[in-house]
Amino acid sequence: MSTLKQKTIHGFIWSFIDNIATNGFTFIVGIVLARLLSPKEFGLIGMITIFIAVSESLINSGFSQALIRKKDCSETDYSTVFYFNLGVGIFFFLLLFFTAPAISAFFDEPQLKNLVRVLAFVVIIDSLTIIQRTTLTKRVDFKLQTKVSVTSSIISGIVGIGMAFMGFGVWSLVAKTLSQRGVNSILLWLFNKWRPLLVFSKNSFQSLFLLVINCF
Length: 216
What we know:
This protein is mainly alpha-helical. 84% of the residues lie in helices and 0% in strands. Helix 2 packs across helix 5 (112-119) and helix 4 (75-107) runs antiparallel to helix 6.
């Protein structure tokens, strides 16, 4: 019990550090980029963010929370949800890619077509990362998550500001987002030892789906 209590306390501390450091650095980077870019360029990314956010919420669908709540998770459970997330992520990437012209026409912004198609890669990157974070949360390992989060925020901030200085405009915001999610995912895969099995269990999926329903 004492070990669990210590892990919980350490987890809370590292989670607090993560929020302060990441949000603080993001705030500073945002101020710098606001001086270098126009409101319209931020607005273009804001339009796309709506579609990305909806896609990401549907990709997860509450399965990560179900895994965290389940006491006796097996490697089959983790792998099943991983492949489900990846499959849904690919589906929404393709959906955004092929509907990009319609989104561009709806907002009457020609630039949105290419912006949506490139930024949609975030959906696939995040689908590869969800279970890595879930396994770390399950182990109450917020220290690694904090290190990864802060590192990816710093690197992406440097990328975004550097490209903005070089005159890439709205694409500096795209690069900032992609580099942040990409570095985050790469570091989690490098330092977290979990790897998916080549298995997808229908029974595992159904049991976790029932847990998802019970969460609502």
